């Protein structure tokens, strides 16, 4: 029986390390992993000199469709993700409008994704004081889990979860067998520090950074962990910005709390000094920290204390990223295309992170944590989702495919370049001598929580 696709001569990045092997694909699944696979194939790709990574599973993106496609949208957002080696994404319940708080909003976003997404996609439901009664119905829809903000989300339509709402949401999630992801910053603490700064006319970048010190994250992380411990729920702490917050999660995990920790490429690549230099394009919450904190975060990642790296791609139109009051500017960074670039250049090249660790935090761990059945690993029987990467190519990132030009990574130089990305054995992106090529026919499928063949995270 002929294979549909044969990737010959590459170095596969497996959980046990790099492996010289060919990869055979039939009907969108990996059917063979072996040296010198001798089988006819309708398409054969010479991957000599390239590494084959499991397709990135980006568990934290804001594609903002429906309702705010002028901010991003599935089409352009998944173009950027595919160009960065991603094959699956989990879309956050905001800044789409309406936010994903009930079945009607789920159905609308699912329809938009099935029409415009170039990659497989899962959908986070929201957990807010407005929709506690909708959680069971959202679980029945197939949400990946529930996302709660412990501080202001930036949009009044998605209110922060007060402690009682978060606690009740965790209890419901435990009963429903789903994960709760939290944006863990203390609402009261950050709100007061911001109000005082603005009342005194302190509206600059450093004033904003100083209004969200690490302790305002650590306090909320501790509270979310306490609630998870009390309820027995599965907690996922998104975009942790310091090794101290990561340590709180690791200590809790060591005593049996079901908690996982995410960080983002911008906390690993940039520093607070960069934020002062670049400005609004690097505004996010929690804020990017100083160089020492960045190094400690890399060390925590290298030590295996961070489970996942998600982009937290949260773009906005140019007009929301300008103004003299830094507090009023939209918080969110465009980074969907450069997660692997940051991990390979800052991690593998500069800090000796093993390739299998990079594959774990960018693909296998999120796939297992969120129970995305056939995703996250180069293994027979799993989906043929992978990226061909030239680890030796140093390049300047100039071609960015997300909707807006406001991308802080434009012009950055990285070693390690994605040459092609395949989703279920279909090429969705390729870097060619005449420029980038995207498939116009491959469309993503909805991902819902299932059973991962390699077990739970
Ligand atoms: N509404 C958002 O997109 N917020 C995001 N913005 C950031 N991180 O600055 C987030 O994940 O909190
Ligand atoms: Zn957040
Ligand atoms: Zn986010």
Explained architecture:
- This protein is α/β, with parallel strands linked by helices.
- The chain has 13 helices and 21 strands.
- Helix 8 links the parallel strand 14 (234-237) and strand 15 (259-263).
- Helix 4 packs across helix 7 and helix 7 (214-231) packs parallel to helix 8.
- It starts with a strand and ends in a 10-residue tail after the last strand.
- The mean pLDDT is 97.
- The strands form 4 sheets. A 7-stranded mixed beta sheet has the order 3-2-7-17-18-19-20.
- It folds into 2 domains: 3-52 and 380-438, Urease, subunit C, domain 1 (Roll), CATH 2.30.40.10; 55-369, Alpha-Beta Barrel (TIM Barrel).
- It binds allantoate ion (1AL) and zinc ion (2 copies).
- Allantoate ion is lined by residues 62, 94-95, 153-154, 183, 239, 284-285, 312, 314, 331-332.
Give the tags.
seven-stranded mixed beta sheet, alpha/beta, globular, 457 residues, single chain, 2 domains, 21 strands, DHOase/Allantoinase_Hydrolase, binds allantoate ion, binds zinc ion
Structure summary:
It catalyses: (S)-allantoin + H2O = allantoate + H(+). This protein is about 30% helix and about 25% strand.
Strand order, main sheet: write it out. 3-2-7-17-18-19-20
Count of discrete structural domains: 2
In CATH, the architecture of the largest domain is Alpha-Beta Barrel
Instruction: Look at the structure and name the CATH superfamily of the largest domain.
Output: Metal-dependent hydrolases
Radius of gyration: 21 Å
| Structural class computed from helices and strand pairing | alpha/beta
Helix-residue proportion: 25-40%
């Amino acid at each position: 029986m002929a294979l549909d696709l044969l990737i010959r001569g590459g170095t596969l990045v497996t959980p046990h390390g790099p492996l010289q092997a060919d990869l055979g694909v039939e009907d969108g699944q990996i059917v063979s992993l072996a040296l010198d696979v001798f089988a006819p194939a309708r398409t054969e790709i010479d991957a000599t000199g390239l590494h084959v990574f499991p397709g990135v599973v980006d568990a934290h993106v804001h594609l903002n469709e429906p309702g705010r496609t002028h901010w991003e949208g599935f089409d352009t957002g998944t173009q950027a993700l595919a160009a960065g080696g991603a094959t699956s994404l989990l879309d956050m319940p905001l800044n789409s409008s309406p936010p994903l708080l009930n079945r009607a909003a789920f159905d609308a976003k699912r329809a938009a994704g099935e029409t415009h997404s170039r990659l497989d996609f899962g959908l986070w439901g929201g957990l807010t004081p407005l929709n506690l009664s909708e959680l069971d119905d959202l679980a029945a829809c197939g949400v990946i889990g529930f996302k709660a903000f412990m501080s202001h989300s930036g949009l009044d339509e998605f209110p922060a979860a007060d402690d009682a709402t978060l606690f009740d949401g965790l209890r419901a999630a435990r009963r429903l067998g789903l994960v709760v992801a939290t944006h863990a910053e203390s609402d009261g603490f950050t709100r007061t520090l911001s109000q005082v700064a603005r009342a005194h006319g302190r509206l600059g970048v450093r004033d904003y950074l100083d209004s969200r010190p690490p302790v305002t994250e650590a306090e909320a992380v501790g509270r979310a962990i306490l609630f998870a411990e009390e309820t027995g729920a599965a907690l996922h702490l998104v975009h942790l910005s310091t090794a101290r917050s990561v340590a709180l999660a690791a200590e809790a995990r060591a005593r049996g709390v079901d908690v996982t920790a995410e960080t983002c490429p911008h906390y690993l690549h940039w520093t607070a000094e960069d934020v002062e230099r670049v400005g609004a394009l690097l505004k996010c919450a929690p804020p990017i920290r100083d160089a020492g904190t960045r190094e400690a975060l890399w060390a925590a990642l290298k030590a295996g204390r961070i489970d996942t790296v998600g982009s937290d791609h949260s773009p906005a139109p140019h007009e929301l990223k300008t103004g003299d009051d830094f507090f009023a500017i939209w918080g969110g960074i465009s980074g969907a295309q450069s997660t692997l670039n940051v991990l390979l250049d800052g991690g593998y090249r500069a800090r000796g992170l093993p390739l299998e660790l990079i594959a774990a935090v960018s693909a296998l761990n999120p796939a297992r944590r969120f129970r995305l059945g056939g995703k996250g690993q180069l293994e027979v029987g799993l989906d043929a989702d992978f990226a061909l990467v030239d680890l030796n190519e140093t390049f300047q990132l100039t071609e960015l495919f997300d909707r807006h030009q406001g991308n802080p990574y434009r012009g950055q130089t990285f070693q390690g370049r994605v040459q092609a990305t395949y989703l279920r054995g279909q090429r969705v992106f390729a870097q060619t001598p005449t420029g980038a090529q995207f498939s116009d026919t491959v469309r993503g499928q909805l991902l819902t929580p299932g059973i991962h063949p390699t077990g739970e995270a």
